[in-house]
Amino acid sequence: MIKFINKIALIGLTIILLHTSSTYAASFQESLINIREEINRDNLDEAINKLKNITVTSDIEQENINILFGDIYLKINQPQKAEEFYNESLFTSDDNIEALTFTGLADVRLVQGRLDDAIKFSEESISINPNLIRPKIILAIAKTRLGDSEAAYKILNDLYYNKKNAEISLALADYFIIFDEKDKAITILEDYLSSDPKNIKVVDQLANFYLMNGDEDKALEYKFRVFKYYEFNRNKKKLRETKSWILSVDSSYFDKPVKARKKRKKENEEYQEQEINSYQDNQVVTNYEKFEFACTGWGSGFIVGKGKYVITNYHVINGAKKIAVRNGHGKIRNAKVVDFSEKYDLAILELDQNYHHKISLNSKTFKNPLPGEDVVTIGFPGIGETAWQPTITQGIVSKVFTDDDPYPGTFMTTISINGGNSGGPIFDLNGNLLGVAYASLDKLGWIKAALKEELKIPTDMGYAIQSRMINKIFEYKQNKKFKNKSYSRAELYQKMLPSVVIVHVSHK
Questions:
Q1: Which entry of 52, 293, 338, 350 is 20 to 30 Å from 306 by CA?
Q2: Which architecture does CATH list for 291-508?
Q3: Angle (CA) 102 188 286, round 5°
Q4: What is the pLDDT tens value at each position of the chain, 508 positions in all?
Q5: For residue 289, with 0-12 CB atoms within 10 Å meaning exposed, 13-18 middle and 19 or more buried, which class applies?
Q6: Where in the sequence of the chain do the CATH 1.25.40.10 domains occur?
Q7: 210 with 223: CB under 8 angstroms?
């Protein structure tokens, strides 16, 4: 009888343990889903707080956590750090984790501009799990950048008609924007929004697209919805960014009635009919000219020499057979290389037609960087929206290398420099040019030093060439004086918008 009771007790205990285990597994998966939702909503602080509260009991669970940390680092533009976490989960027995890991690595390579690797990793992910959407989107984006637009469109179109979710709709809309089909992009997103009216990413992108299409009122209407969303969710960083965007379009938006805004719109439309020949505070131009040839690579640059020349990195134009630039006000000029320094990774492009001389940066604004100084860079990382208007990123000067240091003529900054930022200007908050963004760590010797001396490669730093090197290398000189006025970051962006260019190259 006692033996029988013991057997019953053992069975009961086993059932309890299995139930507990099953309950924990379900709870863990639920936590992962919640964290994923926070990441997708850009609530990164909340996502990190929730990650801290998770107890990891197995290697599989840790690998899932690593992927989430990788996704977070991608969100904050630290692809190298993201790659470290993805690699931690690469060798696993779980197919789903492996597929997600290859997807993350594909995203990293896409950000870095290493398109062949992005394609390779996305195809690896698809072969493991054909149901994943993100690697297919990455594959389409990479093929678009490499000039295979037909293959890219087929991938996105097939996805769109099989499953209309937000991610697919946004990707297809971005594709149409690249080829200047703004109406199609807007139609796709409006169609999706009709079934999911609270999707804030779609609302946000619609605001950008309406602005590109010249409908300022509609753009402000949608962007204000984004503003209220972040206000409700107490996302201070996104709230500041959204408010800055709104004020860059209409500085009176928060303190003037609708009638005044409509009057302002009419005035802007009248202005846009004229050639852009001067700075205009809070002026946004939407009639962007279209490049005549397919892009196989790109970077950033800035206008000098009374509107006749552009400074950029040598590695941006190295091997290019065709070069053109488009400034932040949408005007395109064809260009050719007239001088370069491979050693210092600088190049001067001569334009076939001058930009207006008032938007040209001159040597009197060139200034030496100082450690601790607040700085911003303006450039063109990524595709989609950023292919039309540049982004602005802030940081401080971390270290300045002198002529006696191992890397003379350069400096370090906390600004994260990503693919496409290369060649872009770095300003102080007075509008002085401190340097040229420089994305290649290898050319600064960090990778070689790390391999030789087992040093840790910095992943949260950007590197730049000091502006004085432009004068030193090219003997570039001008006499016009720049007013030493302090700007907010939003004002500086508007001030420098016409002076910054995307450098569009073809190697074919």
A1: 293
A2: Beta Barrel (2.40)
A3: 100
A4: 444 445 444 444 444 444 444 454 567 777 777 877 777 777 777 777 777 777 777 777 788 888 888 888 887 778 888 888 888 877 776 888 888 889 889 888 888 888 899 999 999 999 999 999 899 999 999 888 888 888 989 999 898 888 778 888 999 988 888 888 888 989 999 988 888 888 898 999 999 888 888 888 899 999 999 998 888 877 788 888 888 888 888 888 887 555 555 555 555 444 333 333 333 334 445 567 888 888 888 899 999 888 889 999 998 898 899 999 998 888 899 999 988 888 888 899 999 998 987 888 877 788 889 888 889 898 888 654 445 678 888 888 888 887 776 677 888 888 877 778 889 999 988 888 999 998 645 444 444 444 444 444 454 567 888 988 887 776 544 433 333 455 667 777 778 888 899 999 988 7
A5: middle
A6: 2-177, 178-274
A7: no
Name residues whose C-beta falls within 8 Å of residue 38's C-beta, 6 or more positions apart in sequence.
Answer: 44, 46, 47, 50
Q: What span, in angstroms and rounded, lies between the C-alpha atoms of 177 and 318? A: 27
Location of each CATH 2.40.10.120 domain in the chain: 291-508
User: How many degrees, rounded to 5, is the angle at CA 480 between CA 477 and CA 484?
Assistant: 115
Q: Can you give 170-236 as a three-state secondary structure string?
A: HHHHHHHHHCCCHHHHHHHHHHHHHHCCCCHHHHHHHHHHHHHCCCHHHHHHHHHHHHHHHHHCCCH
CATH of domain 2-177: 1.25.40.10
Instruction: At 325, list the tokens.
Output: 């630039």
Do residues 162 and 168 touch, judged by C-beta distance below 8 A? no
Closest CA to 378 of 323, 425, 431, 314: 425
Residue tagged 């996302």 (tokens)? 235
Amino acid at 55: T
This prediction has a pTM of 0.49
d(C-alpha 17, C-alpha 478), whole Å: 79
Fold observed for domain 178-274:
1.25.40
Q: Strands 410-413, 391-400: parallel, antiparallel or unpaired by DSSP?
A: antiparallel
- In the three-class reduction of DSSP (H, G, I as helix; E, B as strand; rest coil), residue 307 is classed as coil
CA distance 364 to 476: 11
**Max CA separation in the chain (angstroms):** 105
Say if residues 310 and 349 touch (Cβ distance below 8 Å). Answer: yes
